[in-house]
Amino acid sequence: MAVDYAVIFLYLAGMLAMGWWGMRRARSKSDFLVAGRRLGPFLYSGTMAAIVLGGASTIGGVGLGYKHGLSGAWMVLTIGFGLLALSLFFSARISRLKVYTVSEMLDLRYGGRAGLITGLVMWAYTLMLAVTSTIAYATIFDVLLDVPRTLAIVLGGGIVVAYSTLGGMWSITLTDMVQFVVKTIGVLLLLLPIAVVKAGGFGALRDELPTSYFEPLGIGGETIFTYVLIYTFGMLIGQDIWQRVFTARDDRTARWGGTVAGTYCLVYAIAGAVIGTAAKVMYPNLASADDAFATIVTHELPVGVRGLVLAAALAAVMSTSSGALIACATVANNDIWSRLRAAARGGEPAPAGGAHDEVRGNRLFILIMGAAVIVIAIALNDVVQALTVAYNLLVGGLLIPILGGLLWKRGTVQGALTSVAVGGLTVSALMWHYGILADQPIYYGLLASLAAYVVVSLLTPPTDPAVLATWRERLAGRGAPESAHAPAEGAEAGPGAYAEAHPGTGEGR
């Protein structure tokens, strides 16, 4: 394993070096949180694909293939469909708003009174997403180094917190590009063909496995439908995803770069299912389907290649973990802490601070949230239920107000707040009644949220025309606080310039 250890060590050292280099470019709030809004198609596509394809899309996707065959691809396919829908229909408008968080978008659309409650929901979601990703380090480092769980979490989480704190989104972008390349080589170009060949080829797969392993809907229509509600719609509204959209330098980059990333997700989904199907032929009696990835890597890959593929799994976890961490810190600072401080001052604006102070404040919040994530990850053995609650509250409470704000001008702040409350209370009550992992809460929660939004919006006065006028100006790319025209990708930054649990099964991105 010495060669494999060397590969992993070089990879981890490279992540820290990227963080240090990114620190030189993080000179303003825009640099630190959204990479100066100037990523071109290449960087944007790679980093977007990296964040949405986390450890569960890799390890869990292979596990679903082991358990269900080719239909096990559906979880990651719905992630890809969500990213495609976001990129083609909404990303250009989102990018033109020039905001930092989803809650800022809601304040802009509805008149400044929806941000705190939505910020709390979004913070809970991003926190649990980061915790889940961090816990995954224990599994990966156990395979790599046979180290205790706590040490594995501190090691993996500490590296992510370090490079994220140093350079913010610039560091995360650079590391995500490396992670994207490592995942592509390790999973698509090495593990996929080796697994199929070791299993005897596609003919052997068909001969050895039941026909249900090759049925497109073998995993079940209800499961697929729930995947769509949770992951496809979740891609449309998550802060971790929107924050990447904010990094695009123009509408075209956001639209077509995201489309490339979404298409990549579809390929990745099928690859994971095929690898899992091959593992079923070679190791038909594994105790857990989630062991399929580690088993095939450990026993079937040659020295060096094994280290690279394990680095690919580590890359998948790190990309989601870092994206969730900066999203969590951004929401905590901008949507919660800043609003509470403003309320304490009686609504008076905060004293003006320089770009360095803004970067320092956001860097401090990443460090605090990162430490909290590591502590929670150590304390919890399994956060599937907690993450399920966060996903249900996110989609059940926020999907309708966000999409309604983008698509329906008659929507009002009263309708939005009622929708958040009714949707959140409905999913909470039904999770208590049916069980946290049941599918019904999200079904009925969305319906209740939609009904509340429409009815209350129609019964209350329309949004102030001045608010809507400002909203339309920002959607058109005019009146934004930052210039829409940024330097080309690769230009030197100057001062002022830049995915887990499914409720029914316990898998997540």
From TrEMBL:
One Pfam family cited in the UniProt record for this chain: SSF
Localization in the cell: Membrane
Keywords carried by this UniProt record: Membrane, Transmembrane, Transmembrane helix, Transport
GO cellular component: plasma membrane
Keyword Signal: no
Top-rank lineage group of the source organism: Bacteria
Transmembrane segments: 6-23, 43-66, 72-94, 115-140, 152-172, 184-204, 224-242, 263-283, 303-332, 364-383, 389-408, 415-436, 442-460
Gene3D superfamilies: Sodium/glucose cotransporter
Bias (Low complexity): 479-509
Region of interest called Disordered, as start-end residue ranges on this chain: 478-509
CDD domains given in the database record: SLC5sbd_u3
Membrane topology (UniProt): Multi-pass membrane protein
Main location: membrane
MF (Gene Ontology): transmembrane transporter activity
Name of the molecule in the record: Solute:Na+ symporter, SSS family protein
